[in-house]
Each structure stands twice: as structure tokens, then as C-alpha cells.
Specification:
- This protein is of the alpha+beta class.
- It is 29% helix and 25% strand.
- Strands 3-2-1-4-5 form a five-stranded antiparallel β-sheet.
- It is globular and about 45 Å long.
Length: 143
């Protein structure tokens, strides 16, 4: 019994010393190294495309992040580049004038929601067919 009391006393003394040492030591938080911090994208958009004249919950969706380019979009570098040229304005995307499209009406509706360089984005447009969509929006909705 005496040995046990000595062990308990020793444990309490050692624990108290550790607590006091911890309280006496200055609490300096090291500044995080920016090189090791994950980079937060300047822009994050959820893009969708589906057949028909209205958005659908069954539409194909991808995430596009820019600066740095990434997400689930199959070609984020090209899509971000195209959007950067248009300053994030989907209606100002560079249209291909050398692409001939048929007059077959098979509508495709696309949407984009999220943020472009801190500005809220909400875009929806229906194109007459995939060819016109591709000629108008380039790689942005090519997924």
C-alpha cells in the first residue's frame, strides 16, 4: 500500500511539473508557410448540360475551378482560358465562325452556377443543338 501511495504521489508531482512547464512556456503559433498551404481557387463553377429546353436534375454536371485550373471538367485549362478571355461572362465567350452547323433542332440546355473571381454567377441558355453549343461556348461546356 505504501508503494502505491508513493507511485501516486510521484505521478501527481510529475504531472504538476509538466502542467506548470506548459503554462510557463510562451505559446507561439508559427505562421503558416504559404508554399505549403493549399491554394484556394479564385473561381468555382458547377456546369451542367442536358438535352431539352429546360434544365434537368438528370443533367450531366461537372465542377470547374480556375486559378488554379481543376475540378472534374475534362479540360479545365482550356475552359478556364476561354472564360478568362471573356472575363467570366458566358454571353461573351468567343464564338467560332468557321464551324458550320445543321439546322436540326435538338435543343441542349446548359447552366453555370458558382463564383467567378468572387462574383456570383448564374447562367442558363438553350442552344438549338450540340454543334451550335460547341461553336458558341468552345471547351467550356464540352464534357
Amino acid at each position: 500500500m505504501m508503494v502505491r501511495n508513493r507511485l501516486v504521489g510521484f505521478a501527481l508531482a510529475a504531472g504538476g511539473a509538466l502542467v506548470c512547464a506548459g503554462l510557463a512556456a510562451p505559446a507561439h503559433a508559427a505562421a503558416p508557410d504559404p508554399a505549403t498551404q493549399p491554394m484556394v481557387p479564385a473561381s468555382t463553377l458547377v456546369l451542367s448540360a442536358n438535352p431539352g429546353e429546360q434544365p434537368s436534375p438528370f443533367a450531366k454536371h461537372v465542377v470547374l475551378t480556375c486559378e488554379p485550373a481543376g475540378g472534374t471538367h475534362p479540360d479545365p485549362g482550356q475552359a478556364c482560358g476561354q472564360l478568362a478571355e471573356a472575363n467570366g461572362d458566358f454571353t461573351a465567350l468567343k464564338t467560332r465562325t468557321d464551324q458550320a452547323c445543321t439546322f436540326i433542332y435538338a435543343p441542349v440546355t446548359v447552366t453555370a452556377t458558382g463564383y467567378w473571381r468572387g462574383q456570383k454567377v448564374s447562367y442558363q441558355e438553350t442552344f438549338p443543338n450540340d454543334c451550335v453549343l460547341s461553336a458558341t461556348t468552345g471547351p467550356v461546356f464540352r464534357f
